[in-house]
Amino acid sequence: MRHHGLTPAFLRCFAAVPPAWGTAPATGEPVLIGDVTTSPIFAGQPALAVMLAAGFRSVHSYPLRDEHGALLGMLSLYYRAAGRHPGQGRLAWAATRALTEVRSTSSPSPAPPATCPVT
Length: 119
What we know:
The chain is an alpha+beta fold. It has one domain: Beta-Lactamase. It is built from four helices and three strands, in the order H-H-E-H-E-E-H. It has helices spanning about 10-15, 25, 45-55, 90-105; strands at about 30-35, 60-65, 70-80. The relative contact order is 0.19.
């Protein structure tokens, strides 16, 4: 997993408790949560307190799939402000293209273990 700006406590929590928005890889659809405090995905979940303690109010998760539908990874973007944040679909598309290029120019390696099991 690669990240920027997430605290060790945040990472430990989500290593132990799969994020509720982990359905994105299984469905192939983005999960866009505009406000964690009003989202049914976070209602009654320990993840809500962790998100708020980290200062996050919104999360957008995008499954990154190659042209054959194989899952390359996930792009999850955390925001301090609630709401939808336009333009992130383009960022997910660019990340997918970059991963596809890296994958096609590097030697094959086994897929990493799932870090975000579907709940």
